Amino acid sequence: MAQLTDDCFAFGGPLLSVEAAASLIAERVPVLAGTETVPLAEADGRIAAADVVAGRDLPPFDNSAVDGYAVRFADLARDAETVLPVRGRLPAGAAPEAAVPTGAAVRIFTGAPMPPGADTVFMQEDVRRDGETVALPAGLKAGANRRLSGEDVARGSVVIPAGRRLTPPDLAIAAATGHASLAVRRRLRIAVFSTGDELAEPGAPLPPGAIHDSNRILLVALLRRLGAEVADLGILRDDPAALPGRLNEAAAGHDLIVTSGGVSTGEEDHVKAAVEAVGRLVFWRLAIKPGRPVAMGLIGDTAFVGLPGNPVAVYVTLLFVVRPLLARLGGAILDAPPSEPVRAAFRYAKKAGRREYVRVSLRRGPDGTVEAVKFPRDGAGLLSSLTGSDGLAELPEVVTGVAEGDLVEVYRHPLLW
User: What are phi and psi of 94, to 5 degrees?
Assistant: First the structure.
């Protein structure tokens, strides 16, 4: 992995902004994930490793957009009904045997190729069929209800750019333009730990002073939703002598290690020192709330991210800090996350110079406008503030407060994009 360290991010200096961290990742982190070819049925959610180019026009031939009657527009009366004999029948999947005769109509069905000479289709609901003739009303435009070859996609055009996370519509357009399989990036291999002597496995009896480990469950679920192969490596205890070796072991065979807890400045926060013992730190401490103590580094060629110990901070920093790293490592395009401006129905004061994410619920105000209501309690340890809210209101570094009626940008849960 390329060198990331930058003196302007020296520890103990100014806190790093979210954008600066993302820029540093984009500039210095190479793509790690190799490529493989998979069938379309297995490609949903994977990252396209190369541009996908249309192998044929879509549609591949001129065809009818409706069930009806194909005619030559030149045979139609301008201001009166036209009666034409019906000569032939074309269902979808059949090839026309001959051109439409001058002064005649051909019965045609949706998706069937246009017979040579025909350029316009009447919908069957708009005509009167009388035996072997059909009465066509005046007023239809030339070319109506005809789909032209290549009008959707032209052969040779890029239908899926490299780096896109593939969706079902992407797979459909790949299939329609001639592809049965796609080159995709290998899934990232991520090792996940929680740290702390106070943690117990979910469901286990709780000794005095202990809590059940929820962060690891949260991280594993989010990372798997983001398409990674995740190894749950359990709980790392607060043993400064054992931590470096455990991190080294995890680095073998993984692209990224993600931990929670142990990266702040307390006497029992040993993870940062363990990383420095076996690797190097790239940055530490971000200007973000919740989530300031975030450590990023390298253990050999394996990236490391240490997240805070509070669950809301874990959620926020994984989505706004770790997700850009995952995109870079996995060769994915990092699109701006979707947000929406919402009227604030709360007041809030904050410090300048840091970005804050406030948990909010959405409701309709008296005038019908959607407005954001702040979760009634603060605290990065409140899991109920995630399950009991609809999203996060982002308050940029320059903002020092929110008044009722101000517009705030809201990211809805689940923040996976």
Answer: -95, 150
Q: What is the CA radius of gyration of the chain?
A: 30
The pLDDT value recorded for residue 10 is 38
Of the candidates 78, 147, 76, the one whose C-alpha atom is nearest the C-alpha of residue 110 is 147
Residues 118 and 269: their CA atoms lie apart, in Å, by 77
366 prior amide bond cis, ω within 30: no
Nearest to 360 by CA among 301, 404, 325: 404
CB atoms within 10 A of CB 297: 23
What does the block give as tokens for 293? 């103590």
The Cα–Cα gap between 8 and 276 comes to 18
Query: Are the beta carbons of 120 and 140 closer than 8 angstroms?
Result: yes
265: pLDDT confidence band, cut at 50, 70 and 90?
Answer: low
Residues 6 or more apart from 249 whose CB is under 8 A from it? none
Q: What is the model's pTM?
A: 0.84
Residue 292 tokens read as 């300031």
- Per the CB < 8 A criterion, the answer to whether 281 and 10 are in contact is no
**CA distances from residue 410 to 310, 342, 353, 374, 376 in whole angstroms, order as listed:** 22, 7, 20, 11, 17
List pLDDT tens digits, range 147-204.
Answer: 999 999 999 999 999 999 999 999 999 999 999 999 999 999 999 999 888 999 999 9
- Between the alpha carbon of residue 290 and those of residues 10, 21, 63, 260, 275, the distances in Å are 21, 16, 57, 14, 23
pLDDT tens sequence across 10-40: 344 568 888 888 887 877 777 887 899 999 9
Q: Three-state SS for 327?
A: helix
Sign of CA dihedral 261, 328, 217, 373: positive
174/180 Cα distance (integer angstroms): 8
Predicted confidence (pLDDT) at residue 337 exceeds the cutoff of 90 = no
* Residue 70: how many other CB atoms lie within 10 Å: 27
Structure tokens at 305: 């991210």
Mean of all residue pLDDT scores within the chain:
90
Cis peptide bond prior to 59, omega within 30° of 0 = yes
pLDDT mean over 325-337: 89
For residue 105, what are its two tokens?
Answer: 């109509």
340 has pLDDT over 60: yes
Question: What is the C-alpha to C-alpha distance for residues 175 and 44, in angstroms, rounded to an integer?
Answer: 13
